[in-house]
Amino acid sequence: xxILVVNAGSSSIKCELxxxxxxxxxxxxxxxxxxxxxxxxxxxxxxxxxxxxxxENAFPEALKIWKSECSEKVDVVAHxxxxxxxxxxxxxxxxxxxxxKLLEISPLAPLHNPVNLKGIEICEQxxxxxxxxxxxxxxxxxxIPRRARLYAIPKSLTExxxxxxxxxxxxxHQYVAQKAAEFLETxxxxxxxxxxxxxxxxxxxxxxxxxxxETSTGMTPLEGLVMGTRSGDVDFGAIxxxxxxxxxxxxxxxxxxxxxxxxxxxxxxxxDMRDILKAAQDGNEDARMAIQVFSHRLRxxxxxxxxxxxxxDAIVFTGGIGENSPEIRHRVCQRLDFLGAVLNEDLxxxxxxxxxxxxxxxxxxxxxxxxxxxxxxxxxSIALQTYSLMxxxxxxxxxxxPIAVSARHVHLTQETVEKLFGTGxxxxxxxxxxxxxxxxxxxxxxxxxxxxxxxxxxxxxxxRHFNQVEISRTDEFYLGIDAPVRESGNVSxxxxxxxxxPKGSVTxxxxxxxxxxxxxxxxxxxxxxxxxxxxLVSVEVNTGEKxxxxxxxxxxxSDKFKLEMHIDTDEANAAEICQGYHGELHLTEAGATLIKRx
Length: 598
Ligand code: ADP
Description:
29 strands, 28% strand
């Protein structure tokens, strides 16, 4: 399948034709200086001077010339769309309705979305019946939790105008995260990554077990790091003060912050890091300071994001600066030993990533946190995401999946059981659970958190080789603990808790999680549903009265499992399943349908 990826910007358009199946790049074209007289069209090493200007005229003219010279067929056109608002996170087939929605959210990204939409309309006219797909820069950040995406402003304004942090450069963050996982030979779902996209626009993202949980850009791409011409974080008080003193309107201030600030504003030289690094070397003080502010801001975010995730396994640098500047990588990564990240200066200086070697490692072999520089390829990522949308099997089995509600419970080691119930104590079976070999024990314990305690928490047996306390987000809030949403079994770096039994108490240093909603299935069901272990799927839960879609449901396949979806009490309440039930794992009347592969 040949996919033409279109990246339409306000002053340039870049397109690439990619065979998504073998990932071969077939043709590339770009139009630069789009709004000046005679924009330049470049492809196949040739330059063409266009006779018309502006996207409306120059883009169709360029496509006509390109088509007359390029014999490859186009099967799908994929557009990079900067802002998907609250409507679009996944790659989406473009219809009249989708375009209407994109128009509606254009005010959220006035510099980008209108021109993306124009690119779509021009391609629809030019390519007629060929399907068009939108891939969103904000899409990957859909998983950022509310606590990280809300601004602390009056709730009424947040709701009225859909104000929130959306996050950008998601296509690049997602792509390099996947490449890092492949390089480290560890599934993305087991890694905590900090990815730094440093191009003309810059942002840093915390990716916890495959999901974006924090990113530095906000409602618009202006927030966060120092960028080429964008300021990143500035106290609004300073902006209001300047506007008042200089008698400037908000839109004039917005222009200054978007186009005259960042590296350009600090250095007075321009937005290109290469020129600034050279000027600094020649002794230019403003250039030196621009580099320091740029690097300091990024270090600050890396420290913060390591704290957000409770640790980090790798820090990834990408984009023009992250891929090509050992000096910036050095400035950002030096003295990160306290985090477990130890820079190897020689490896950092020796090489940059290249098409032949797209990932380079520049940390010491003993560094617990790996430092990587990775070549990003947003065009390829868009093509692959589009390919997966166009080929995925939407007609999965409609077999109903039984739902069990998992109330708070604990899994304990034999050693902990003995500390709580007495030496030599063995758990006794209250009743067997639906998963073979598992049982709810007669024994219960009390969980003691910093704020409150919860009594009568059921122990599930048999004993395991580690302690794990599974509670809901509501329980966490009540106890005063902020535990991560995790796959069962993954308790590293999770918070601890005190467990009290009739004969003693145990304080765990880690082990509290909020279990990630998941579906247990035996291999033959996995085959029927067309899914594999660790896949994330969407699931429609139908209780008769209410239908609800749960995204990011984890598939767990084992021949020891029986087909069953497990959700916690908060999720059950949201779906109006078995409200108010308290006890161990409880099978309900409700069923779920697996509707989509991710
Ligand atoms: P975009 O965000 O437009 O895709 P890129 O990712 O290509 O941009 O990054 C462009 C930036 O990369 C340039 O502005 C320049 O500052 C920086 N850059 C490119 N090469 C180098 C280099 N060798 N050293 C430092 N910075 C570089």
